[in-house]
Amino acid sequence: MSYYVAEHVTSHKGYGLGVYTYFRDHTVWMDSAIKAPTTSDIHFTNTLGVYLSGSGGMHHLVNGEGWGIDSGHRTNYLCNHNFAAGSA
User: Fold this and answer.
1) For the purposes of burial, counting CB atoms within 10 Å of the CB of 67, is it exposed (0-12), middle (13-18) or buried (19 or more)?
2) Integer Cα distance of 40 and 57 in angstroms
3) pLDDT digits (tens, 9 = 90+) for 26-47
4) DSSP 15-75
């Protein structure tokens, strides 16, 4: 994971977050690029994942949601995410 919001956090807004993968020396797979508590006041807007090069990638963008990225699917966006409403 590349971006982590601690479990005790009850309110957080992330705008324009970008996570990039470049695993040059070893094959690495991240389950989710961003992990955060699943409370109603946690929001992510315009989240981006980009595969740059190397081996591996990420399965999801936020908490197991959103498409992953790898050498065959190099870019993914998750436009709006609110845990109370689910992905939008």
Assistant:
1) middle
2) 29
3) 999 999 999 999 888 999 999 9
4) ES-EEEEEEEEEEEEEEEEEE----TTEEEEEEEEEEEEEEEEEEEEETTBS--BBTTB-E
pTM: 0.83
How far apart CA 50 and CA 18 sit, in angstroms, is 8
Spatial distance between the Cα atoms of 49 and 6, rounded to a whole number of angstroms:
21
Q: What is the separation of C-alpha 58 from the centre of its chain, rounded to a whole number of angstroms?
A: 8
Tell me: the pLDDT tens digits for 52-72?
999 999 999 998 888 889 999
DSSP 76: E
The structure tokens 């955060």 sit at: 36
